[in-house]
Amino acid sequence: MKILLLSDTHGLLDKVYEIYGKLNHIDLIIHCGDYQRDAHTLEDTLGIPIVSVKGNCDGASRPDREIVETPAGKLLITHGHLEGAGYDYNNLLYLAEEKDCIAVCFGHTHVPMCEDFGGIYLINPGSLTNPRDGSNGSYAILHSTEEDFYANIVYYDTVCGSQKKKKPQGGFIRGLLNYSDRF
Question: What are the entry keywords (predicted)?
């Protein structure tokens, strides 16, 4: 099973359509909130099953969580704002243990993360439209079989970026040296 994991699209779906067109054999899309209506739009447009939850920008003041069954085990889906994502991951880990899940998929921070905490994966795809990690956006691809489970964070520029090499830019000191005759 191959899953496209998204979060925090905030009403901007152009990059999602662009990367989806370059991906092969996606079985499911999971949207971890902030603009759940984007998930409904994607489902209607792409015709692929989507599991989604509400985030803080959807007005979710109570936990909105889903469980997704995969060949490798269960995934807990949440936005993460009510569980303290970004400050402390213990609540997410406790929830995963309580629900017997192999992974928690969440968003909220707009920063990608994929880490194994003692056999439970915490996976945040970041945001394609409003990243907070200095990148041009990211998402995750999850692979699940009966024998294996793994996830990869994929950066938008590696799939859809320009192939032109950029010239290195100098900084403040270089500018002073190049234009030192002005002083």
Answer: Metal-binding
